[in-house]
Structure formats: structure tokens, C-alpha cells
Amino acid sequence: MAKMGTSSRVAAAIVVVLGFVLSLAVVCNGGKTSSFVRKVEKTVDMPLDSDVFKVPPGYNAPQQVHITQGDQLGKAVIVSWVTVEEPGSNTVLYWSAYSKKQKSEGKFTTYKFYNYTSGYIHHTTIRNLKFNTKYYYVVGIGHTERQFWFITPPKVGPDVPYTFGLIGDLGQSFDSNKTLTHYELNPQKGQAVLFVGDLSYADNYPNHDNVRWDTWGRFTERSVAYQPWIWTAGNHEIDFAPELGETKPFKPYTHRYHVPYKASGSTAPFWYSIKRASAYIIVLSSYSAYGKYTPQYKWLEQELPKVNRSETPWLIVLMHSPWYNSYNYHYMEGETMRVMYEPWFVKYKVDVVFAGHVHAYERSERISNVAYNIVNGICIPVKDQSAPVYITIGDGGNLEGLATNMTEPQPAYSAYREASFGHATFDIKNRTHAYYGWHRNQDGYAVTADSMWFFNRYYHPVDDSTSAQ
Ligand SMILES: [Fe+2]
């Protein structure tokens, strides 16, 4: 190496100092861009003969068992499963320690997708359950009965603690399996999952190979048979394939995953709401019409004034395509919906919005961008204590891999961002406080790589931002 002269040493020192000042400026401008270094291997799907996809033994054994909330209050559960050889029984047998065995009857459906024919997809709603009670349930008959259990949520009320898990864009890769395992072993113990869309990624296979919907159902059963997952539709649920003669959007998804949309006055399963414990959860569809006069718009317009914060202080919105996203992926895809609905979110003081789609993690400050009126030039998001925090949690681990390119510098609204696979939990303590934590797959189960104490926007609307004040 050639020796440096004094002047070049001074120049180098200036460059170093300048670089330091500049990087400080970046840190102060936006929040934190994590420097965590993760593995760079490709994300690959688990092969079809993986143990997580194993078909349960026995003739016509129920498989792909999954549950979700079945009404608006949490006193009903939709139990779904698939039988392959023949329709079999639609009955769910269920009981608790305090009640005798009861039966509930449902229905089954089937569908065809190009050259694929589904199994018999059963959906049975169990109603009039008691709150906060462990129920056992059995599906199947004879030698192929399979037993599971779930715990109903506590009665809806303002100070009821409850822990939600958050998973998005899961898929069925080796990384997906790690994400699910980390969620299951997280000592924070999620009681229900808020799933922000993109389930199986079957549409990435030739002819949208729907066998991958079946394998995904078997893979996730170990969690979703025991606790409800609240579903949001993502773009990988659309399965619109005119080249295959498949022109009805959402066909596999709507046959396989039922949601209680009618209970909240919705006219389609893509947007709906539920109450659970102290939370009011609104699910929106990035892939259904949302402009003025559309069914989703009219529903949301009537829905938001119905939220009674003295009953459910926590107002949570789920959608697939994020409104605020500083990665170089899916840029502005959520923008038109933001323009339509953001003033409502500020007016009704939504606490937090969870989205997926971008395969990475990001948490925003409380910001809004509603002031722009063409001539005033006010088109940069500003801090707004009535606005939600926006969290992108599309990092479940699907085969498309991570979104690693970010816009630079980090925008001021972005509090933390990192391209790692993981999941999160939203742990409501009471009407004023909730502890939020994001867990990356490489860490120990108890570690939170990003966390925040949420202050409720209705009962405790003080600044809860995590950046330097
Ligand atoms: Fe997506």
C-alpha cells in the first residue's frame, strides 16, 4: 500500500467525519434501519414429502383443520376441514369441562380449478359458546376421528387483556416453518392470529397448482386448529387466471376459508369486522373495489362510527397492501386506498394498521398525509397524534424471498425497518397500554428485535413514538 501524505490524511479524516455527520443526519431524519445481517441463502419451498405436509392416517381422515371466529362477539367458531375420499360427516362434536357433548351440523363444498378437483371442504359453525372457556372438538367418524381444542375469548370489555399474534405472507418454505415455530414458542403466547394476507402462494406454481393449497392447510393445522386465525385476502388469494379459463377471482380462497362477514353487515367475505376481548378489528380488502360508492366504501363509512371505544378501546385495521412503505417493492400500490380512507382513520383514531405484501418488516411513526389539496404543496407525511402506527409484517417467509432494497435515506415517517423474516405479537394489557414486539426468526424465542408500548388513542392519546423526542 502506498503511504499517505499529510494532506491526503487530512482529506481522509474530513471524509470520515463528514460520513459520520451524514449518517447521523440519516438516523435523525428517519428512524432506524437495522444493520442486522441475515443469511443470504435462497428461500425454497418445503418438498411435498416433508413431515409438515403429512396426511393424517386412516381412511378419509379429516385434514387441514382450521378455525376462525364465527360471529362478531367471539361466541361462535367456524370449524373447517377437508376429507378426500368421500364427503363423510359435516358434524362437529364439542364439549367443555362444564357442558355435555353437543353436536353442530355444517355443510361441505367442492370446487374445480383448471385440472384440479378439490376434496370435500367442510365448514361447520359452532354457536352459543361460553366466553373464556376451553372446548374440545372432534371431526371425522369411526376410526378417523380427530380431536382438537380451542379457548373462547373473554367477554368483550374495555380492560380485557388479550394477545394477538401477527403473521403475513407466510407461504410454505423452510423459512415459513421457522416463522410458525417461533410464533408457537414465543413466551408471549398469542391467543389468536391476525393474518394479513397471502396464505399458500399456490399461484406461483404451474397452473396455480392447488395441491399447494392442500399442503398449506396441512402445514398450518398445528396452530390454526387450536386458535383462530383472522383472515385478510392478499393478492396471492386472487387466483385470477383467464389463460386457464379461471375467471372468478378468489375461488380457492373463498371455498377454503370462511369468515363471519355477514355478522358485521358486510356483503362480501373480503371486508368485515369482529370484536375480540378489548379490540375491534376491521379487515379491509386491497383487491376489491374501494372507491366512493363501492360496497366496501359504503360499509366502512357506516362501520367506523359503530366502533364504541368504551366497549372496545383498541381499534385495529388489517389490510394486505401497506399505505406507508419505504422499501423499493410495491411502491405506491396502497396509495389510492390511502387517499380514500386515511382521513377516516385519523378522524376515528385508529390505533394501528397491520399490512403485509412487502416481504420485510417496517414500523412507522404516528403520521398522516391528508393535508394536500393540489395547490398547497403539503404532500409529505407529518406527525399526527390522531393517526395510527403503520406496521408492515409481510415477512412470514414465502418462496419469493425477502425485500431487501430500501429507499434512501430512510423517510422521517419510518421508525424501524429490517429485511428479516419473523412475526409479531400485540399484547393488550388494559384500555390504555399494549405491548407490541416483533420477533426475527434468527433470535431466541423471547427476544424482541423491535418493540413499542402503544398508548391507546382514545383513552391515553399521548405521544408514544420511540424516536428521540
Ligand atoms: Fe402480497
Helix fraction, binned, reads 10-25%
Bound molecules: fe (ii) ion
Intertermini distance: 46 Å
**Overall pLDDT score:** 93
Cofactor: Zn(2+); Fe cation
Protein name: Purple acid phosphatase
Enzyme class: hydrolase
Domain Purple acid phosphatase N-terminal: 62-150
What keyword list fits this structure?
alpha+beta, 26% strand, six-stranded mixed sheet, nine-stranded mixed sheet, 6 helices, 25 strands, 469 residues, Purple Acid Phosphatase, chain A, domain 2, single chain, binds fe (ii) ion
Overview of this protein structure:
The chain has 469 residues and is of the alpha+beta class. It has a domain of 238 residues: Purple Acid Phosphatase, chain A, domain 2, CATH 3.60.21.10. Helices cover 17% and strands 26% of the residues. The protein contains six helices and 25 strands. Strands 1, 15, 16, 17, 18, 19, 20, 21 and 22 form a nine-stranded mixed β-sheet that branches. It has a six-stranded mixed β-sheet with strand order 14-13-12-23-24-25, with helices on one face. Strands 2-3-9-6 form a four-stranded antiparallel β-sheet. Strand 4 and strand 5 form a beta hairpin. The radius of gyration is 23 Å and the shape is globular.
Short description:
It contains 6 helices and 25 strands. With 469 residues, the chain is of the alpha+beta class. The longest helix is centred in the first third of the chain and has 24 residues, at 6-29.
